[in-house]
Structure formats: structure tokens, C-alpha cells
Amino acid sequence: MRRIDVTRTIDAPIAAVFEAYIDHERLSDLPMVRSVTIAVPGRDEKNGLGAVRVVDSGLVLLREEITAFERPNLMECRIRESRPKTEHELGRVEFAQHGDRTKVTWTTVFGLHNPILALTEPIFAACFKAIFTLTLKQVEKRAVTASAHKP
After folding, report:
1. Region class of 44: left (phi > 0), else alpha (psi between -120 and 50), else beta
2. Exposure check for the chain: N or C terminus, fewer CB within 10 A?
């Protein structure tokens, strides 16, 4: 099993950062993501608790369920199906207000089922860390823009 931790402090209020992060369909703005669809909307809000999203990047396909959703401090998900097949213990993104800024901590723990592919876990981990970093940079741009336009 591999653990990935990515932390970024964003110069925007927590509500704007959380909102920018949970907009699942905007993940398709990333260059390595072909599409993101909401297969099942959340119970109380589209991207909230119980939502199931499908992320397709060509080689990797993930079907994730939102398993915890505490606006604006926490979102957790579990990969329920994937290509390649993975074991996913944890996907957690925590948001903490620090003055006018927001600290985001993204943690995931995963492993690959296929013994041959398991040898490539360090490569997958490095790729996912890069993707998480890019995602948080995108979230930062959207959150800063959104908070700048608020009265």
C-alpha cells in the first residue's frame, strides 16, 4: 500500500476553496483527464455525500463514491471500481481556515491488485501526487477568482 500526502495553502477563504474543490465535473479541465461524470448525485447536493463520480483518463478509470462530506472542512471518497484494479483504503481532503487563507491536505492510501502492476506502485504514486498537485493549483485559480468577485 502507498500513502500520498499533498498540502497546499491557498490565498482564498475556506468556503471558496471547498466549493472549487467539490465541483467534480471541473476535474475534466485537467489535461490528463478525458471526462468526469456524476453517475449518481449526492443525497443532499449533487457533489455531496453518496455522489458517485467516474473519472476517465484513458489508461486509468476510477469510479469513486463520496463517503464523508462535511462542508466546508472535509470530503472523503473511496474508489469502488477501477482500471487497473486497485485497493483503496482512504481518500481524504481536509480544509482548514488560516486567517484569510485555506490549508488543504489531501491524503490517499492505495495499492494495485495485480502483482506485476504492483511493482509500478511507486510510479503510480508519483503520478497521482503530480495530479493532486495540479488539481489543487486549478482549485486555487478558481477559488481566488471566485473570492475576488465577491462583494
Report:
1. alpha
2. C
Q: What is the pLDDT of residues 100-151, one digit of tens each?
A: 999 999 999 988 877 777 788 888 888 889 989 999 999 999 999 988 876 6
Inter-axis angle of helices 14-22 and 121-148, nearest 10:
130
> In the structure grid, which three cell numbers stand for residue 101, read together?
487563507
Torsion angle defined by CA atoms of residues 47, 52, 57 and 61, in that order, rounded to the nearest 10 degrees: 160
Scanning the chain, the segments in alpha helix (DSSP H) are: 14-22, 115-118, 121-148
Residue with cell 508519483: 126
**Integer CA distances (angstroms), 68 to 7, 37, 71, 130, in order:** 19, 19, 10, 24
Backbone angles phi, psi at 126, to 5 degrees: -65, -40
pLDDT tens for each residue of 107-119: 999 888 777 777 8
